[in-house]
């Protein structure tokens, strides 16, 4: 037989079925029970763990402002230390990463690029902006100003050390390279060129008019390649020779 007693809120309900008894706490006392307090502590512990995970994913130390906005990107990451302002905004990029230390201002903006990376240490200003490029890379150390801007290029690279100003701008070029060390100003602008690089060394093979091989002392340093004749190392004119560039 099944018996039910104490159906009001003051007494517990007891349901008996042969030798089995189940007790229920009154409805008006369940909210003040220890189970509810334990539930509150579990929720607080879970929230603290979520905050720790968020802070470890997006770290910031001793910064006035750290802002990161990304749209339609697989990964957008910005981690600064001891910076006044670090800002990174991207659209439609696969990967955009910006990491700086002890800089006053570091700004990186890119659109429709596969990779845009800017890393700087102890610089006053480092700026890199690119559109529709496969790769744009700018790395500097101990420079006052380093700027690299490119459009519709496959590769634009400008590394510099201990320079006051290094500028490289190009349009519709396959390769534009400007390396410099301890220079005040080095500028290489180019348009619609496949390769812009200066200077270079050429090895000249002169015409074999006398039947002898002239392979020695034929290294010439050119500032530019033009359709004209040059002198070899010994001062003899070389007309119509073959030029091997290194």
From TrEMBL:
Biased composition (Polar residues): 1-17
Gene3D superfamilies on file: Ribonuclease Inhibitor (3.80.10.10)
Organism superkingdom: Eukaryota
Ranges where the record places region Disordered: 1-29
UniProt-recorded name of the protein: Uncharacterized protein
């Amino acid at each position: 037989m099944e018996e039910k007693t104490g159906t009001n809120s003051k007494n517990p309900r007891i349901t008996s079925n042969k030798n089995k008894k189940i007790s229920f706490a009154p409805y008006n006392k369940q909210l003040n029970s220890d189970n509810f307090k334990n539930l509150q502590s579990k929720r607080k512990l879970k929230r603290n763990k979520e905050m720790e995970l968020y802070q470890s994913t997006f770290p910031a130390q001793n910064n006035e402002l750290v802002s990161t906005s990304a749209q339609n990107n697989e990964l957008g990451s910005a981690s600064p230390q001891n910076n006044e302002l670090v800002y990174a905004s991207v659209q439609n990029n696969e990967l955009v990463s910006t990491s700086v230390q002890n800089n006053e201002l570091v700004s990186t903006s890119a659109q429709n690029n596969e990779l845009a990376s800017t890393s700087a240490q102890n610089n006053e200003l480092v700026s890199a902006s690119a559109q529709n490029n496969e790769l744009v890379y700018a790395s500097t150390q101990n420079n006052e100003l380093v700027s690299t801007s490119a459009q519709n290029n496959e590769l634009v690279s400008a590394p510099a050390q201990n320079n006051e100003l290094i500028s490289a701008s190009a349009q519709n070029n396959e390769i534009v390279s400007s390396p410099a060390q301890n220079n005040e100003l080095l500028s290489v602008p180019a348009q619609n060129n496949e390769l812009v690089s200066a200077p270079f060394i050429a090895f000249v093979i002169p015409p074999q008019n006398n039947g002898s091989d002239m392979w020695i002392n034929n290294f010439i340093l050119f500032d530019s390649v033009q359709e004209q004749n040059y002198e070899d190392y010994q001062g003899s004119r070389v007309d119509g020779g073959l030029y091997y560039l290194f």
